[in-house]
Amino acid sequence: MNVFLQTSRLALSAMTEQDADFIRTLYDDVRLFTYESEIPTRDRVEKQFFFYLEEAKKLPSDGAIRFIIRHQSQAIGQVQLTCNWPAVGEWELGYSLQPTYWRQGYGKEAVAAILIYAFEELHIHKLMAFINAENVGSVSLAQSVGMVQEGHMREARWIRGTFQDEKVFAMLEADYQKAKEQLKRLIHEHPRNA
User: Fold this and answer.
1) Are the C-beta atoms of residues 103 and 109 closer than 8 Å to each other?
2) Per-residue b or e along 4-27, where b marks 16 or more CB atoms closer than 10 Å to that residue's CB
3) CA atoms of 86 and 100, how far apart (whole Å)
4) Of 124, 129, 152, 126, nearest to 141 (Cα)?
5) 163-182 burial: b if 16+ Cβ within 10 Å, else e
6) Can you give the residue ranges of the N-acetyltransferase domain (predicted)?
7) What's the whole-number mean pLDDT along residues 150-156?
C-alpha cells in the first residue's frame, strides 16, 4: 500500500522492503526499550517487519501499517497502526524515534499526522495507546495530541526485575472531531527548514 503523509517538517511513508536496514538499525538502539519489557531479538524485528508489510494489504478495515518518519529525507523513526478489533474499529498506536530527535516535537508532529490519517482515511472508531507510566515523554505526547487517559493498570509490566504500571490512552471519533483543528495546526506549525 502506497501511503504518503506530509507535515511541515516530516514526510511519513508506508514502510517498504527498502526500509529493512533502517528498521534494524533503529531497533538496535537499546535506549528505545527503556520502558519495555524486553529488547526484541533480531529475529523478532525481522518477523514484525514482514508482519507489517503483509498486514498493510488488509487495509482499510483490518490489518496494520507501519510508517517510516523522515526529516530532510533521512529516516528518523517509525509509527504504526494495528487493528486490534475490526468489528468495532479499534486500533492501536505505537511509535519510536531515534534518540537524537527526542524532545523536539517530531513525535508529536508525526502522531498528529497519523491520527488525521487514521480517522479520516481508515475511518476508525477508537485509537488506543498503552504507555509505561514511567515514560513521561510518551505520556505527555499522548496528552498533547488530545488522547484521553482511560485507565491505569497497576504492575502491568515486568521490567528489569520490577513491576511497573501502564497507562491506557485513547481517542474516540468524537474526541478526534474536537481535536481535529488542533492536530492540523500541529502538523503545520514548524517552518519547513527546521
Assistant:
1) no
2) ebebebbbbbbbeeebeebbeebb
3) 36
4) 129
5) ebebbbbbbbeebbeebeee
6) 10-170
7) 95
Listed by start position, the domains of the chain span 4-186
Pick 4-186's CATH classification: 3.40.630.30, 2.70.150.10, 3.20.80.10, 3.30.230.30: 3.40.630.30
Q: What is the pLDDT of residues 43-68, one digit of tens each?
A: 887 888 888 888 888 888 888 899 99
Question: Tell me: the pLDDT tens digits for 88-99?
Answer: 999 999 998 988
Host H or E run for residue 10: strand 10-14
Give residue 193's pLDDT: 45
Q: Exposure of 114 by Cβ count < 10 A (0-12 exposed, 13-18 middle, 19+ buried)?
A: buried
pTM: predicted TM-score of the whole model, two decimal places: 0.88
CA distance 16 to 67: 9
57 or 194, higher pLDDT: 57
